[in-house]
Amino acid sequence: MKLKDQTSSQDRLMTWDDSFCFKCYPGVDCFNKCCGNVTIFLTPIDVMRMRKALGITSEEFLERHTHRLISHNTGLPAVVLRMNENEGKTCPFVTEEGCSIYQDRPYSCRLFPLDTANGVEYKFIAKPETCHGLAESETWTVERWRKEQDLRYYDDPDHNLKDIMAADQVWEEPIADPRMQDMFLMALYDLDRFREFIFKSSFLQKFKIDDDILEKIREDDLSLLYFGMQWLRFVLFGQKGFLKIDKEYLEKKKREVLGSQG
Ligand code: SF4
Ligand code: SF4
């Protein structure tokens, strides 16, 4: 496909079989220009990978490199990568050689020059006037691009998250309780704090969790993230899933409360 065709088809929706031309490399004259003055929403997997690549805790990462937005519709927090406070509002990870965390760069940086359109189809997000990589002759299908960028890794957690975000209960009544918003943030984005919460609070007195699950979430961030999604389903919608509440603990707490009132 020549550039002329691609320019005229900028607004088309593409499925996995559709093709486009693109190549991004240090020789292109716009190299690094797109790594600034941009709003990048981070997925939980992005935060999980980026903080590991930087060798810092999830709490440090969120504090240093992100800011939060609250969705009007759901009341749930979204995490956005914080750009530098310089004239070009450059990304903190861009260097002359390109992205310094290339292997662990965020989902939307991987997908660029495309973006998802409706969860099934894709559209161009880059413009040929500014992204000269679109004028290169290397041809990709959407499917091959997804494979090259390792995007399958994100599909399942992403699907799970959409499931939580789209739940009727959330949309009908936006969450206004800051403690609930913080639980959402902790369980999905602040995995070190979530792990501490599970193992160092009374969490394991309240919930009976199978030993094999505990073993996995103690060490493995991805398992902990899936666990967090399950826990959020319980906290937000009362769906218990594999979480079993310890009835003796609840009875004990009830007696304590009744005792303190009497
Ligand atoms: S994370 Fe990497 S690819 Fe994404 S904007 Fe920053 S430097 Fe560019
Ligand atoms: S604008 Fe396009 S070609 Fe230029 S650096 Fe960004 S992605 Fe690569």
From TrEMBL:
InterPro entries: Puta_zinc/iron-chelating_dom. Pfam families: CxxCxxCC. This is Putative Fe-S oxidoreductase. It comes from Desulfomonile tiedjei (strain ATCC 49306 / DSM 6799 / DCB-1).
